[in-house]
Amino acid sequence: MFELKENDDICRQAQNSGTFYLFHNFSPFLQKIRGKYLVPQINATEIKKILEKFRQNEQRIEDSVLIGCSGDCLAYFALDLGSMERSVLESGLEGSFTELQQAFFQLDEKDTHLLSSAQALLRWHDNHQYCSKTGQPTKKNLAGSKRVCHSSGIIYYPQMSPVVITLLSDGNRCLLVRQASFPRGMYSALAGFCDVGETLEETVRREVAEEVGLEVDSLWYSASQHWPFPNSTLMIACHAMVQPQETEISVNKLELEAARWFSLDEVVEALRRDPRSSKQEDGTFSVCLPPKQAIAHQLIQEWIKNQLCQ
Ligand SMILES: NC(=O)c1ccc[n+]([C@@H]2O[C@H](COP(=O)([O-])OP(=O)(O)OC[C@H]3O[C@@H](n4cnc5c(N)ncnc54)[C@H](O)[C@@H]3O)[C@@H](O)[C@H]2O)c1
Ligand SMILES: [Mg+2]
Predict the structure, then answer these.
(1) Distance from residue 230's CA to the centre of ligand 1 (Å)
(2) Could you tell me the distance, in angstroms and rounded to a whole number, from the CA of residue 132 to the centre of ligand 2?
(3) Is 229 near ligand 1, meaning CB less than 6 Å away?
(4) What is the ipTM of this complex?
(5) Is 186 in the pocket of ligand 1 (CB under 6 A)?
(6) Which residue's C-alpha comes closest to atom 6 of ligand 1?
(7) Gap between the Cα atoms of 310 and 304, Å rounded
(8) Nearest C-alpha to atom 33 of ligand 1 is from which residue?
(9) Cα–ligand 1 centroid distance for 281 (angstroms)
């Protein structure tokens, strides 16, 4: 990856043997076969044919960005054809440009990872076309790993915002929260963006105090994931404990709609429930939890495992 990022000539060669994922205004090109989404992988020759068919300059392939590399050094690229007519492209390519969020939870792990990195990188380039100091256009290197303002020499690198997500426990129960924007009935672990200069531990303690008014006693790291919604974040997942005698919650209603402690049985039952069928006969929604693709799900699974091992 380093050579591909740093050397435009090597990257150009890799484009000729690489695999491309197409987007249109940040929506990936997908095919739906027997109810399942497939992510077509297109090679450089096919991309050039598509560009030729739609009377686009072959050079447009150089607008693509590098999003990864396979074990046997096959490079993956993403190309956004947003300036072209969407419906014409779709009928020519026999598939459709689908909102990432719509397909995300039905795709294979490798595809979700590549498509979310691709969308984040394409968005970053779209938002950084001008130097914020000089106002002059910036130019991307071939791989898309940076943009340079040739007037000031400033180099811009793609960024993600760090977010901590914490599953809080009092030893017997775990704390789950919901924002008004979550799907009905859905509860998740408590999340918050890192402030500049903060350590992850400080963010966990501050967010827990701000959102539910509790004091974290101890915490430990679990895992991380890139999360593309609504913008590119690096989710850093932690477990944390409060003292069992200090569990009274004070919900910050500006940030959360609700927060409460859940027993092991309640969590196990909620995890079994399909979020799509959590609506009850009286119109209310049963508690449901994030799907397996979200790191919150992994934290909850780990907590259950720990409780069962006690
Ligand atoms: N993958 C998962 O399992 C999972 C679960 C829960 C939340 N999340 C994600 O975590 C993210 C953060 O959670 P939250 O909304 O509770 O955060 P939060 O508690 O920090 O509240 C969001 C507010 O923080 C401010 N903010 C500070 N820095 C920001 C930045 N860089 N970008 C946007 N807003 C910023 C804004 O005022 C925003 O309204 C969300 O984007 C959400 O999608 C992911
Ligand atoms: Mg939050």
Answers:
(1) 9
(2) 29
(3) yes
(4) 0.95
(5) no
(6) 191
(7) 10
(8) 193
(9) 33
- CA distance linking residue 291 with residue 4, whole number of Å: 35
Distance 252 CA to ligand 2 centre (A): 10
Rounded to the nearest 5 percent, the helix, strand and coil shares of the chain are: 35, 30, 40
Which helix (DSSP H) or strand (DSSP E) does residue 126 occupy? helix 109-127
**Rounded distance, CA 254 to CA 247, Å?**
20
The DSSP-derived string for 260-286 is EEE-HHHHHHHHHS-GGG-B-TTS-B-
The closest residue, in CA terms, to atom 18 on ligand 1 is 192
Query: What is the end-to-end Cα distance of the chain in Å, rounded?
Result: 44
pLDDT tens digit at each of 310 positions of the chain = 888 888 888 888 888 889 999 999 999 999 988 888 889 988 888 888 888 887 888 888 889 999 998 877 789 999 999 988 888 888 878 889 999 988 888 888 888 999 999 999 999 999 999 999 999 999 999 999 999 999 999 999 999 999 999 999 999 999 999 999 999 999 999 999 999 999 999 999 999 999 999 999 999 999 999 998 888 999 999 999 999 999 999 999 999 999 999 999 999 999 998 877 777 778 788 899 999 999 999 999 999 999 998 7
Q: Are 47 and 79 in contact (CB under 8 A)?
A: yes
DSSP state of 106: T
Pairing of strands 65-69, 174-178: unpaired
Q: Please tell me the distance from the alpha carbon of residue 121 to that of residue 128, in angstroms, as a whole number.
A: 11
